[in-house]
Amino acid sequence: MPLHKDEILNSLASTANVAQFVSFRPDSHSSLIQSFCRILGHDENHRFTSVREAVTALLEGSSDKMVNVRSYEPNSPRSREFVYGLQHVEEVLGVLQRLAADNLHLIVNETIDINDGGVSGVVQGQLIEFAPDDTPRCVEKPGAASLPFALGAKLLETVYRFPPDLNFPANTRVEFSIHPKPRGYHGRHTIIWELERDAPSFLPAAITWPNRFSRHLGDKAFGLLVAESLGVPVPKTTVIGRRTAPFTFGRETGSSEVWTRTAPTEPQPGLYTTVKGWLDPFTLLTNEDSSGQEIRSVLCQSAVRARFSGAAVTGPRDQVIIEGRRGEGDQFMLGLQFPESLPPFVLENVRATYAVLASRLGPVRFEWVHDGDVVWIVQLHCGATGTMADVIVPGLADNWIEFETSTGLEALRTLLASLPAHHGIVVVGRVGLTSHVADLLRKAKVPAKLKTL
């Protein structure tokens, strides 16, 4: 006979870290009988004299002086109503009495802050899904990060600087949360909320972003973490985030210089600062995003001794478009320099890097730097484009407006903001199909084509 949720929690508590809890089962008169409990300062499964005494002890012993109530039917692995963040004994007792009237079994557990910079989610087989600022039920909503377990666990360990304690058999479904500060009955960083046995073990992961976790870290930071987790060379990068403690990943490049890069929630081609050299990240965040809503982090990234730099995008029919030039590529990406012919060995190396990433992620777009021996990834995004030859964004327009590339990205932003409906843009001048000019047009989804002088 399957174990009840509270029996599973009680068993888990002997080895795994669970939130402090007390559980109840209704009797034939809808009164509540205590079944299990794990509360600090009390013996394992201490028997309280009343429901009120048990709830009071849990509220007083909880780290945030709040509790949740979970309800379930004994013969179903799925939860029923979930009530979050109750602060007073009387309101907890009211919720328990109401749910007991429906003959539901109940677990009262301490509330652990979901807005502390950590994540919650689910592991099932070789799939892990999670999001910040939410309970494990985030997987029932759009936007949760979805990754193969090994890659996701490595990424979480890099960000939070400890391995998530999620070593369970492949046929289990585990609801968990990860916290920067130790929490729960055993005082660890990983909390296990539920464990369901005999769950399907093969679920495919579709690695895509932006998602809620990539927005939490900043798009550039997330993309580089994915690239590094897949074994592609990424320059040593320290992420100074708004919501997470600083963390570092990537490889030494052999250069003592650094780049300072801003990481907005979603790609904003050329809008925010990227500069060679070190800038005060806190001043930068204040000056460029005082509201704290757009830029999620600042990256300090080791410079690469650039012999060639550029970008690669996926065009129609999985065609790989590679562009670049000698030296550093910041001016090329801004559309202020045009592409040059690249040596065959550079093109071959970039294509090989593309093949590694595309084999795991599908169509991708990335910025690269070649030091003469190694291709380094300095930005990574997923998804294909419709770009080809002299067409940046496919589509028809009733009228076409010319844009001179020499006027710069900000002029293009202004033009796009005021562009009438059913109009397209003709880009006048030599500009890369992989540049930020092209990125901005693709992001705006405005028909655009090149007119080369």
**Which consecutive residue ranges, at least 5 long each, have pLDDT under 50?**
none
What helical percentage do the residues reach?
Answer: 10-25%
What general form does the structure show?
A: elongated
Alpha-beta content class: alpha+beta
Tell me the number of strands. 23
Please report which band the strand proportion falls in: under 5%, 5-15%, 15-25%, 25-35%, 35-45% or over 45%. Answer: 25-35%
Q: What gap, in angstroms, lies between the N and C termini?
A: 77 Å
Mean pLDDT: 89
Output the radius of gyration.
26 Å
Number of helices: 11
Biggest sheet strand order reads 2-1-5-3-4
* Number of separate structural domains: 4
Largest sheet: 5 strands, antiparallel
Walk me through this protein's architecture:
Keywords: Plasmid. There is one protein chain. The protein is an alpha+beta fold and 453 residues long. α11 (436-444) links the parallel β22 and β23 (448-451). The model has no long low-confidence stretch (mean pLDDT 89). The protein has 4 domains: 5-110, no CATH class; 119-196, no CATH class; 212-302, no CATH class; 391-451, no CATH class. Helix content is 24%, strand content 32%. It has a 5-stranded antiparallel sheet with strand order 2-1-5-3-4. It has a 5-stranded antiparallel sheet with strand order 8-7-6-9-10. It is built from 11 helices and 23 strands.
